[in-house]
Design goal:
- By secondary structure, the protein is an all-beta fold.
- The protein has one domain.
- About 0% of the residues lie in helices and about 50% in strands.
- The protein is built from no helices and 14 strands.
- The strands form three sheets. Strands 1, 3, 6, 11, 12 and 14 form a six-stranded antiparallel β-sheet that branches. Strands 2, 4, 7, 9, 10 and 13 form a six-stranded antiparallel β-sheet that branches. It has a two-stranded antiparallel ribbon with strand order 5-8.
- The model has no long low-confidence stretch (mean pLDDT about 95).
Amino acid sequence: MARYSVSFVSKTMVAVADGASMTSNGYAVFLQGGSATMQLKVNEISVSGEDTASTPTTMAFGRDSVVGVTAITATSNFNALLDATATAPGTLAVFGSGATTNPTRSATLGHLLNPTLNTYGGIYRWQARVGEEIGIISATQPLGECSLSSVTGNGKVSGHILYELV
């Protein structure tokens, strides 16, 4: 079992309604299984605000009804193995903040967590207890992808999502 950190740096969020397609680089990141049988377990989400003025931003970490297709991994997104002694699997999870077809947050499954913060220095951190991780399985909707995006507000954020490839 390999544990990873997918991180995002200085993302200016673009608010999007449930059921609407996201805009490349207008959301923090999407995380998708790299194959039809891949299972991921999300166990931590951390978001830190970087704005120079008060900017309340309500975000959603949730499932997507349209998954990202052909990820465009920006230079401000990273996916790194946490344990240097672990062996990386042959297939990795798919991630990015842009795609040729961008994700659409599900209107019914799109709010598993609602990280809300004032991005003028605010911090949000969620950690799952053992056995209560958020699961992502396969590479298709409705369970194969989750994303972190803005519901209201356009704050500038950085952060990470820690997950395990099971």
